[in-house]
Amino acid sequence: MQNDLTEVENFTYSGAKIFDKAQDFLPINGTDYVELYVGNAKQAAHFYKTAFGFQDLAYAGLETGLRDRTSYVLQQGKIRLVLTTPFIPDSDMARHLREHGDGVKVIALWVDDAFDAYQQTTSRGAKSYMKPTTLNDSNGEVRMSGIHTYGETVHVFVERKNYTGLFLPGYEKLETAYHPGDTGLRYIDHMVGNVEMGSMDVWSEFYANVMGFANLVTFDDKDISTEYTALMSKVMTNGNGYIKFPINEPAIGKKKSQVEEYLDFYKGAGCQHIAVATNDIVFTISEMRKRGVEFLYVPGSYYDTVKERVGIIEEDLNELKKWGIMVDRDEEGYLLQIFTKPVEDRPTLFFEIIQRKGAKSFGKGNFQALFESIEAEQARRGTL
User: Fold this and answer.
1) Pairing mode of beta strands 55-60, 172-173
2) What is the pTM of this model?
3) Per-residue pLDDT at 384
4) Most buried among 62, 92, 217, 285, by the most CB within 10 A?
């Protein structure tokens, strides 16, 4: 079957023409999949099915002829997660897992021509990760290639126009007897990378020069700071707005920022969080909380000023307060968002759940409350 990501939401600002600055030599249709290296893929799959509502899709491992690793592929809406565990202790994949812990390795991008994407990016200075490769089975062929980005994170380009299979050649249908309902997650809204101090401009320029992205918005340490910590961020987007990569770096503050904590525990730059969209955030969060997902605490006083700051919204403010859902507005509308605590013992990867009611921004009005909540968690961990 053809890739079903064609309905990814367009992020274009009405009248703003923000994407005119993005070059179109690397057309991207959406996020194809996100691959996490994890310590136990079978158990991780059970967690993401139970807690987040992902569904069985595909599997590769010993039973399919793989001898070095196993991978479980889960799907919800247009989001595909690949959870991979290495078998060989002295492999590079095992080294990656020992050093970084569970985390995002591959951000795969769906393109029309994977070989051209490789040529376009490597000719502009990208370091090769996967040379152009064709995978075949009875359902056709998938062409792939890949490049390195910040830290040990990579982008893999996936071309599917001549493939009708479930996921990729080499995978079989994943069938289990456990099918918890979904939680209403629809697609990946954005993915955030944390990089070392002084590297934000390096990587924003990489996305601009190597991949043709444009700078959508910049936040400095005056926008994203508290009494104790601060960071800076540039949001990079491709031409159609389907892909958005905020790039964060720490800024000087009195104490250790969330970005510094991430870099310390992840042992370098990497993907800090995955923002996933829903059409009904109250349903999504109520379901996820019932299933054991932990979210950052938002103080009740935050909601005292929401009406003054945001104006009229459709949702019941008391219901949002009950579930700890934050609200912000821009010139296009408003958004609702909430952040999980880290989904593993290392304080590294977490998820954002977001519902956009016209807003195209990233919740700047929530930064203060959000960062204070993150700092409270850092203090509990002794890492602030």
Assistant:
1) antiparallel
2) 0.92
3) 79
4) 285
Other beta carbons less than 10 A from residue 344's beta carbon:
18
pLDDT for 375: 75
Query: How is the beta sheet containing 270-278 ordered, strand by strand?
Result: 214-219, 230-237, 244-251, 185-194, 270-278, 350-357, 333-339, 326-330
Phi-psi region of 161 (alpha: psi -120 to 50; beta: other; left: phi over 0): alpha
Q: What is the pLDDT at residue 157?
A: 98
Q: What letter does residue 347 receive in the DSSP assignment? A: S
Task: Extract the residue ranges of the chain whose pLDDT is less than 70.
Answer: 1-22, 221, 223-229, 365, 371
Taking the C-alpha atoms of residue 184 and residue 281, their distance in angstroms, rounded to an integer, is 8
DSSP for 299-340 reads -GGGGGGHHHHH---SS-HHHHHHHT-EEEEETTEEEEEEEB
What is the token pair recorded at 228?
């104790």
Residue appearing with tokens 């057309």 = 27
Distances in whole angstroms, Cα of residue 223 to Cα of each of 138, 218, 368:
53, 9, 9
Which contiguous run of DSSP H or E holds residue 307? helix 306-310
Backbone angles phi, psi at 354, to 5 degrees: -135, 140
The residues facing 220 across adjacent strands are: none
Cα Rg of the chain, angstroms: 20
Asked if residues 321 and 300 have their Cβ atoms less than 8 Å apart, the reply is: yes
Cβ 153 vs Cβ 271: under 8 Å: yes
Q: Which of 137, 251, 154 lies closest to 193, judged by CA?
A: 154
* H or E element in which residue 205 lies: helix 200-209
pLDDT given for residue 1 in this prediction: 41
Q: What is the pLDDT of residue 232?
A: 86
Strand order in the sheet with 79-86: 128-137, 140-148, 154-159, 103-111, 28-37, 79-86, 69-76, 55-60, 172-173
Q: Which amino acid is at 243?
A: I
At 117, is the secondary structure helix, strand, or coil?
A: helix
Phi, psi of 174 (to 5 degrees): -90, 120
